[in-house]
Amino acid sequence: MRPSWLVVALTSIALTLSSTGPVxxxxxxxxxxxxxxxxxxxxxxxxxxxxxxxxxxxxHRGVDLAGRVGQVVRSALPGRVVFAGRIAGxxxxxxxxxxxxxxxxPVAATVRVGDEVSAGGSIGTLExxxxxxxxxxxxxxxxxxGEDYLDPLRLVGAGPVRLLPLxxxxxxxxxxxxxxxxxxxxxxxxxxxx
Length: 194
What we know:
Elements: H1 5-20, H2 27-30, E1 45-47, E2 63-66, E3 72-74, E4 79-87, E5 90-97, E6 100-105, E7 107-109, E8 116-117, E9 122-126, E10 138-145, E11 148-150, H3 172-175
Antiparallel strand pairs: 1-2, 2-10, 3-9, 4-5, 4-8, 5-6, 6-10, 7-9, 10-11
């Protein structure tokens, strides 16, 4: 009996995927630079990244990190300061990193436009005025490529959790319908097919 085209196709796909390893959901994520937290020690994430569906829509275009007034704010990546000033009464610092830039607010800048900063280098201190977490102080940290907002938590390995489908961990035969291990069947002690 010849195997059906579906079995051959699924076997080929399963063997290819098992030999190449996981594929990131966003190819750019595989090339993310490794950065540092802008507040030390590692802060509590008060509000996560929630990009808008449309450029003008509601959303959260960065993350909010709990901090304290006067705390040193550090550049997440090495780069050059491209903005240091006040916007709508809030202190803002932006650091360029080639094709991307990170933003930090509310910050009393200790750097000027054109200054080179290292990863972890001080760029200012956290202010209360303009805090997204008022009456608490927190740092709003953003990351952009052009006009596209990115999740800055990806820079420190704390971005969204990417779960692989269950079949990725199974041998190719399980994908093709062989009897699963009891726990994988979702029924402890189950001996039948899924």
